[in-house]
Amino acid sequence: PIPGVTAKTVDPDTFEDLPIGTPGMLLIKGPNVMQGYMDDDAKTSEVVKEGWYVTGDIAIVDQQGFIKITGRQSRFSKIGGEMVPHINIEEAIQDFVEGEDDENIRAAVTAVSDERKGERLIVVHSDLDHTAQEVCDHLKSLGLPNLWIPSPDSFLQVEQLPVLGTGKLDLKGLTELAKDHF
After folding, report:
1. What's the Cα-to-Cα distance from 111 to each of 12, 84, 117, 150, rounded to whole Å?
2. Under a CB-based contact definition with an 8 Å cutoff, are residues 61 and 27 in contact?
3. Residue 4 DSSP code
4. Which of 29, 68, 114, 131 is 20 to 30 A (C-alpha) from 180?
């Protein structure tokens, strides 16, 4: 961080400080942090806790104080008490299913509520040229943790993944699609 600004990581659920080098929710404190939202104490209390700004980023702060952002909280699922990064699963699937010069995102991971595990991973995808079972078997062959591997019945094929006007993946639309089908 720049001089006068402090950064730390905390457990996303308990907000307890985490040791240096441990990934967690990134909090920032300093003169650059806003006081809060005008006339909206509820929203302010969500993002400013005891003067610390809750960034929504999952990051690691190393021994030298350098910050490495590893993802967004909205792009993680809490399954069986563990944080599961959607982007890692998406990249592994994309590497497996992409053809030559394929720059289109063909699969995205989101989650829906699950009574047993907290959340359930859902893969929303266009045509993959592989079955859901083949994709799951490939993820297993990579040595990914079992919690990171969606079940074959958690795949939803769509004509096209939802995107925003900017061309970026519409994460809210993706989640809504999953909730409508699972």
Report:
1. 17, 10, 11, 10
2. no
3. T
4. 131
